[in-house]
Automatic annotation (TrEMBL):
GO terms for cellular component: plasma membrane. Residues 142-205, 206-262 form the CBS domain. Pfam families: CBS, MgtE, MgtE_N. It comes from the Bacteria. This is Magnesium transporter MgtE. The chain crosses the membrane at residues 290-308, 314-341, 362-382, 388-415, 427-452. Acts as a magnesium transporter. Homodimer. Belongs to the SLC41A transporter family. The lineage of its organism: Bacteria, Bacillati, Bacillota, Bacilli, Bacillales.
Length: 453
């Protein structure tokens, strides 16, 4: 197998495309299948529509299915339009059931069910079952391509079974044992099978301590389970403990990537708008609600400044420190927000305790406020010649940072208690709230000490 480097990538790809353009099927297949699968994908994505249509003639549906599975969803939707109905059905039939279900769930329902109706009965049934589960649950991300055993089977029988069914299974590193009612009762590893005596029984080597997940369990919780136990796969069962599928580590990696992207979108108040493939109109439509909401919060800040107009008229220089107070409080709050959201996502909050976490962030805010206050007490008299002004700004920033860290910690915790995603307590939202709090503190302190200025 050839793995392309930067030096030979373009040259080799050119040779592949040249053989394709000249319709030299034998040479094309030889060159193309010498490539690493990911390099095959790169070459395929570089092709024109005319070249891709030749690919569909030169590759069998099961060969093309391996490429199709690795494509991004939007590319899958686009290239599906280039396939005739029969070829598309054959491609879907050779995909893993979970990947096939994920794709069919995203295309037009009429086209999806037309493809499903053309599949073999058992495969169509499996895909329909996967499509029936709620999104982002264990059932929706599991695969039906797995091997299960009975406790009464001999090791010799299991090895023969793996020779026949193993190539079509998602993984055979773990083999799950079921009883006559198809209830999960044990697990055996491939290592256990290989090292056991051929005439011994599965019940002699299997472990009955099986960690499993229910079909309705949230995919984030499943990902946490994989991380805790370092699993390569985990069985999925119904409420009646019947084994219905498995989830493999490659699916969990996709889940972690998806959840991280969602949290980042929420954190930036731009959920669904960070994908560069969507149009400016759709990006603006998704971002607009947060921007408008934060604009109204900004108007609160403006009203606060207006209420302290006399204070500003008395000492105009106070206005120059408004951005400093607002910016510092917003930044400190966002940092605490990141700590809280991360702790909730990793499950470390339960171990350390809510009170300890809030106290830790509050103490951090006090220390940050003290450091910033000391710096301002040195710089402001030097720049503006007023120790009282330095004291007002220093005290305000001390109080603001102390409060901002608490707000940044508590808000996502409250949202989490309401069974919502804590990431929706976005950076811009926390920043705006702390801007308001910081202004209130600043002008209250300034007004109280106005006679000394």
């Amino acid at each position: 197998m050839v793995k392309l480097t930067e030096q030979n990538r373009d040259q080799y790809a050119e040779s592949v495309l040249k053989s394709l353009d000249s319709e030299n099927i034998q040479q094309f297949r030889q060159l193309f299948f010498e490539l690493h699968p990911q390099d095959q994908l790169d070459v395929y994505l570089s092709m024109s529509e005319t070249q891709r249509k030749k690919i569909y003639e030169f590759l069998s549906p099961d060969e093309y299915a391996e490429i199709f599975e690795e494509l991004e969803l939007e590319d899958q939707k686009e290239f599906l339009q280039e396939l005739n109905e029969h070829y598309a059905q054959d491609v879907i039939s050779h995909m893993s059931t979970d990947d096939a279900a994920d794709f069919l769930a995203e295309i037009h329902q009429t086209r999806a069910y037309a493809i499903i109706d053309g599949l073999e009965e058992e495969e169509a049934k499996d895909i329909k079952e996967l499509l029936s589960y709620e999104e982002e649950t264990a059932g929706s991300i599991m695969t039906k391509d797995f091997v299960n055993l009975t406790a009464s089977s001999t090791i010799r029988e299991v090895i023969d079974l793996l020779r026949h069914e193993g190539p079509d299974a998602e993984t055979i590193y773990y083999l799950y044992v079921v009883n006559d009612n198809h209830e999960l009762v044990g697990v055996a590893s491939l290592r256990d099978l290989i090292t056991a005596e051929p005439d011994s029984y599965v019940k002699d080597i299997m472990s009955t301590r099986v960690v499993s997940v229910k079909t309705g369990e949230d995919q984030e919780d499943v990902a946490a389970l994989f991380k805790k136990y370092d699993f390569l796969a985990v069985p999925v069962i119904t409420e009646q403990k019947k084994l219905v599928g498995i989830i493999t580590v490659d699916d969990i990696l996709d889940v972690m990537d998806e959840e991280a992207s969602e949290d980042l979108d929420e954190f930036a108040a731009s959920r669904g708008a960070t994908d560069l493939k969507i149009t400016p109109f759709n990006a603006a439509k998704k971002r607009a609600p947060w921007i408008i909401l934060l604009m109204f919060f900004g108007m609160i800040s403006a009203n606060i400044i207006a209420q302290f107009e006399k204070t500003l008229e008395a000492v105009v220089l106070l206005a120059g420190f408004i951005p400093l107070i607002m910016g510092s409080a917003g930044n400190a709050g966002t940092q605490s927000l990141a700590v809280a959201v991360r702790s909730l996502a990793l499950g470390t909050l339960e171990k350390k305790g809510l009170g300890k976490m809030i106290l830790r962030e509050f103490s951090t805010g006090i220390l940050l406020g003290t450091i910033c206050s000391v710096v301002l007490l040195i710089i402001i008299p030097f720049m503006h010649g007023s120790y009282f002004l330095a004291f007002i700004v220093g005290l305000s920033i001390f109080l603001s940072l102390s409060m901002a860290t608490v707000i940044g910690t508590v808000v996502p915790l409250i949202i989490n208690k309401l069974k919502l995603d804590p990431a929706i307590a976005s950076g811009p939202f926390i920043t705006t709230v702390n801007d308001i709090v910081g202004l209130m503190i600043y002008f209250t302190v300034a007004t109280a000490m106005l006679t000394y200025l």
